[in-house]
Amino acid sequence: MNISKEQLLWKGRCLDSDGVRFFNWTASSFEFAFTGKKAVAKIISDPENWGKDNLGWIGIFISDLNEDYSLQANQRFELSEKENNILLFESAVEKTVKIRVMKISENAFGMAGFAGLEIDGKLEKLPEHKYDMKLEYIGDSITCGYGIDGVWEKDTFRTEIERADKGYAYLTARKLNADYNMISWSGIGLTSTYIDPAVNLPDNKWTMPRTWPYTDKSAALRLKKDPETWNAAEYVPDYVIINLGTNDQSFTRDIEERNLGFINVYRALIEEVHRRSPEAKIICCLGVMGQMLCPAVEKAVEMFRKEFPSAQIKALTFPVQLESDGIAADWHPSAVTHEKMAVQLSEFIRNF
């Protein structure tokens, strides 16, 4: 039996193009339940654009119909072909299961597009899951789960060791029984992407203010389409968590003029978020990879609050990661640190 994208439950900002639904953003997914022995999905990608280290990866979660999924994926698959026929499930005897297919690598690299699903049994109705809240994340590599399965000074970035399902954003959603939507991109900032210390000019070709308003600007450009503006009515968050500034630090370098520029752009992004989701509570986070711009984040929040006194907004500083908790690839947070971040953020949201 062929299953169409309209028969699946989707999570995240997805872009439809020529019959394919791209679910490229971190932890975006589709879900279904069926009774049968076998399920195979056709997933489109673009390996020709990437080396071996930057291919797309998906995670497969499988559980009995009325049980929770495991915290991390049961299986992972590399999208090494333009058309990938992924065996999601196979059993010698007929079983009733539910399956979630999640993008566990980030949008900046190999894509993932749903092009079909074949099951040998019958589709079942998914049990309704009632979430307690909806979260939206706007972040950088930390939110992507960059390098979690790697080790500092041993590993450098590759998508194989990027794990959305071990990241603080996904873990926080699980702790709070929350739905989620993530817009995150490694190296991205507000005034500049990450730059080398020898460089003295900002790299602002790909910043969050130029990315967040669109459904999937990157995929649209790769597919030679005009980027479409995200329809905010499709997902109305209760909380918006902004975790940006880590990469801007590489440019601002505690120089007052650059700090002021960062503050102004940050305040403008907060206003955009608030105007789009006026009832949402906003949390502005920073700190786990450096706290140089934490005062600037607090200043941006303070400026915004004065102009919009009825808005609900707070700043949150994460402690700098500890070497004793392990350091992941390229000095990014380890799984232990991500868990600590998730505990802190979950409690902050509960007590907002």
The averaged pLDDT comes out at 97
Distinct helical segment count: 7
The whole-angstrom Rg is 20 Å
The biggest sheet, with number of strands, parallel, antiparallel or mixed sense and barrel status, is: 10 strands, antiparallel
Helix content: 10-25%
Structural class: alpha+beta
Order of helices and strands: EEEEEEEEEEEHHEHEHHEHEH
**How far is the first residue's CA from the last residue's CA?**
47 Å
Q: Descriptors for this entry?
A:
352 residues; alpha+beta; ten-stranded antiparallel beta sheet; globular
Quick gist of this model?
By secondary structure, the protein is α+β, with helices and mostly antiparallel strands. The chain is 21% helix and 29% strand. 46% of the residues are buried.
Care to describe what's here?
The chain is 21% helix and 29% strand. Strand 14, helix 6 (294-307) and strand 15 (313-317) form a beta-alpha-beta unit. The N and C termini lie far apart (47 Å). It is α+β, with helices and mostly antiparallel strands. Strands 1, 2, 3, 4, 5, 6, 7, 8, 9 and 10 form a 10-stranded antiparallel beta sheet that branches. It has a 5-stranded parallel beta sheet with strand order 12-11-13-14-15, with helices on both faces. The mean pLDDT is 97. The chain is globular. It has helices spanning 141-144, 168-175, 217-222, 249-252, 256-276, 294-307, 335-350; strands at 2-3, 9-11, 15-17, 20-22, 29-44, 56-64, 75-79, 83-103, 113-119, 122-124, 133-139, 178-184, 239-243, 281-286, 313-317.
